Amino acid sequence: MATEFNLPGSSFEEVQKILKGYASAPDQASLDSLSKLVGLHKTIISRNNKFLTDVGLISGGMKKTATDLGKKLGRALDHKQAEDAQNYWKEAVQTNEKVAGLVTTVRIKGGMSEKDFSTHVLYVSGQSNTSGNKTGARCVVDVLVAAKLLVEENGKLVVSAAPTIDPPVEVDLSSGGAAPKREPANGNGNGTGNSAGGPAPAVTLPPIPATASLTPQIAINIQLHLPETENAEVYEKLFKALREHLLSPKE
């Protein structure tokens, strides 16, 4: 099988240490200077460079430089900012289509054990079945878990479910948008406040003109408790008073 993607050459812990070194080293750092900085032999650093380049964390020729993403991730790791590190790992994985595509296999299978998935990573990478490449495959598994693209559930790795967030309610105040309707406190949904059992009419006043384009308009709902009477004149006087004093007030 041809090489599909490069595997790390170290454990996840060593890869993180190398990343922190690149993030704090000057641009175009040599392997010798990095070796002194992180306390790892330069051959250990070198065998991880192809993978780190593939996922967009370092770049360069014989001398490497951390990319902007690599510097952000290395700094987050150095300062133990777990949430930021998770987001940067996720961004790094998604820069490489073949590495990111490993998550699809887990989704299709409905979950895999860590051992089986690690074996699958090694196989599809196209690398030889050596102890060093087994370590690298396991490191890729740890990277996907660190990115929260995979999580462990009931002894298996499964695809992480994206958090569900209710979208915010937006009201266009400039166009006089109204707030969402709410059910009345009595819970019957008909606005009844009449002691006689009949629905009380809701009187809506005209909106108050806004003094600025972003000032909300106001609507006032009035509920009436009507007296129990068969005298129509009582109601006529009541509504006449409403019209005169609320709906069409005199200047």
Description:
The protein is mainly alpha-helical. It folds into 2 domains: 148 residues, Arc Repressor Mutant, subunit A (Orthogonal Bundle); 61 residues, no CATH class. The chain contains 10 helices and 6 strands, in the order H-H-H-E-E-H-H-H-H-H-H-E-E-E-E-H. The strands form 3 sheets. A two-stranded antiparallel ribbon has the order 1-2. Helix 8 packs across helix 9. It is elongated and about 100 Å long. The N and C termini lie far apart (90 Å). This is DUF5343 domain-containing protein.
Helices and strands in order:
Blueprint: H1 12-24, H2 31-38, H3 42-54, E1 58-60, E2 64-66, H4 68-78, H5 82-93, H6 97-100, H7 102-109, H8 114-125, H9 131-146, E3 150-153, E4 156-159, E5 203-204, E6 221-222, H10 232-247
Antiparallel strand pairs: 1-2, 3-4, 5-6
Helix pairs in contact: 1-4, 2-3, 4-5, 8-9
What attributes does this structure have?
about 250 residues, mainly alpha, Arc Repressor Mutant, subunit A, two-stranded antiparallel sheet, 10 helices, about 5% strand, DUF5343 domain-containing protein
